[in-house]
Amino acid sequence: MSKQKKESFFWTSYSDLMTSLFFVMLVLFILTIVMLHQKIKATQAQIDKINEIEEAINKIDSTYFDYNKVYKKHIMKIKVNFPTGVSDINVIDYNTKRKLINAGRSIQQTLININKEYPKIQYLLIIEGQASKDNYARNYELSYERALALSKLWSDNNIDFGANCEVLIAGSGIGGTMRENVEQLNQRFLIHIVPKPGIIEESKSK
């Protein structure tokens, strides 16, 4: 084979190889674009569902709760004035206790309504107690004990938040970020309803 023919064969083969590589890269590029597009659509669907769930949670009865968008917590509007160092909820007057019970039932009904729409989604219901700054040394423990007393009050009145809801008791004492300037107003409860991580993936089959 002449030198000229060898060179011609080489460049023909080289050209075919480069063409093949170009088509391989083109196919990979198209597949990557398609996969990214599908991932973006899936992510947007998750975001939309999260927004729907949050909107449903925020429909809790405004008679008893104000929603703080910054901290994503519901502030119980019922004024609860515990004596210093006391966590026994039985010291609270009858009307206030009835309001607390009704507030629990409004949470219960909200979760029932959400579960009808999203039966596979699970939640954390965080009952957070706060305390006012004073000379009492156990305000952090006290805030937890008050939140626990509220949870027991709801339980004693047959308020059940369902199998999809896990209840957590917390006490932020005289700390935390959501505090009022008037210390007496910090004797209150904060409610946080949080969809559990991973629930969007698990509910895709709905």
Strand order of the largest sheet: 1-2-5-3-4
Please give the largest β-sheet.
Answer: 5 strands, mixed
Helix amount, in percent?
40-55%
CATH class wording of the largest domain? Alpha Beta
* N-C termini distance: 69 Å
- The dominant shape is elongated
The name of the CATH superfamily of the largest domain reads OmpA-like domain
The number of distinct helices, counting runs of at least 4 residues, comes to: 4
Structural write-up:
This protein has four helices and five strands. It has two domains: 1-57; 62-202, OmpA-like domain (60s Ribosomal Protein L30, Chain: A, 2-Layer Sandwich), CATH 3.30.1330. The chain is elongated and about 100 Å long. Helices cover 49% and strands 16% of the residues. The chain has a five-stranded mixed β-sheet. It is an alpha+beta fold. The longest helix has 55 residues, at 3-57. The protein has helices spanning 3-57, 94-117, 139-156, 199-202, and strands spanning 65-68, 73-76, 123-130, 165-173, 189-195.
